[in-house]
Amino acid sequence: METKELKEKLKILFRSYRHMTPYIKRELSALGITTTRQKNHIVLDVQGHSVPIGCTVSDRLVGKKIVAHIMSCL
Known about the structure:
Number of strands: 3
Strand order of the largest sheet: 1-2-3
Order of helices and strands: HHEEEH
Helix content: 40-55%
Largest sheet: 3 strands, antiparallel
Structural class: alpha+beta
Distance between the termini: 12 Å
Radius of gyration: 11 Å
Shape: globular
């Protein structure tokens, strides 16, 4: 999958992120990103890089920040 296509899919997926849902976990798994829960955080494993995200959001821009962090790992 091309990085531009991946970025668009991630943007749609995290557009209204409030907390980790089973749907988001399934979609991330289909994209090759594994999720692990650790107390108050969820750690995404993106090609050997760890991307920690909060279980619940702190502001409305968190979805964009998550996508940017994932894309920086690619």
